[in-house]
Amino acid sequence: MGKTIVGLEVTEESVRAAEISLGRKPQLIAYGEVPLPADAAKDSEVLDAGAVAVALRQLWTGARFKSKDAVLGVASRRILVREYTTQAMRPDLLREALPYQVQDLLPVPASQAVLDFFPLSQDGDQVSGLLVAAVSENIEQIISTLSKVKVRAQAVDLTAFGLARVTAHLTQPDEAVATVHIGDHTTQVVISRGGVPLFVRILPIDVATAAVRRHSAEASTPELELAAVASGGVAGAVGSPAGNGAGLTQGRTRGAIRANTPPGVADLAARLRSTLAFFASRSTSAPLARVFVTGGGAIVDGVMPALSAAIDTPLQVVSVGDVISMSTPPPAGEVALNLVATVGVALGQVQR
């Protein structure tokens, strides 16, 4: 592996990547995003390998990434993340035993799943943690597509884990915080302490982000030429620059979600409120100090007012400039918010 690593995400709307330097003080040195044609991919699933490969080639060329080594961040409604307790044993023995232990919990046969277990605590001979299961065919398809453009997948990481990792330095070590990434079709919620994920939920919710609107326009105008969004700017970005998230802390007065809130936004606020309330209801749960909000959906009209009305915990919008220093001109709009997750995925290799 070289001196840099690229965090990479494949979504329904685009392929997005961020290159960071490896070392004690990582920096964002390049980033880019290339829109995908309709039906080329779903969240973390490749449907048209040829179209995605073309976009990846444009991405690496347009952003001028130095490295071909990448960490793939995955986040899909088809990925299972749940709390799980099992007998404590050596990691290698647990990996062998896990498929037999969790078969009844999986939506597919264990032989068709990629499994991981993230241990959190141990009580006697029982260890508790987070079980992660993804359909192996989907992961293999993305890795195969990367190989078409000679990009090497060094690791596959749950994007929610990257979110917990990247916001850790914005908190006190003993604070429990939630990080919410509002994507185009999937919202991720991770509750963590000191960068360690304690609870994860992946919510399938469609939000009318600029990327979704652009994608819809492309579907109705096939001849539209798509250009890569390379380091130094965001072509056609919608929304004002995210700026410093610390300045976007929401007010503390809460009430009912406004009656004129768009249906998708109202559903998002209600489901996030329910998710956080579920975590808080457990006897072992610490109260949340803050809720960090990121992802392109954070600047969709009505989203932050609806969340502010629905959630009692202080909210703070976080953009990529809040979580890593940069040696490249900063991104703006949705890209600045979406890159928070992408950088978090890449940082996993720095901390290994």
Automatic annotation (TrEMBL):
SMART domains: FtsA (SM00842). Residues 5-167 form the SHS2 domain. It comes from Microbacterium helvum. InterPro entries: ATPase_NBD, FtsA/MreB, PilM, SHS2_FtsA. Coiled coil: none annotated. Gene3D superfamilies: 3.30.1490.300, 3.30.420.40. CDD domains: ASKHA_NBD_PilM. This is Pilus assembly protein PilM.
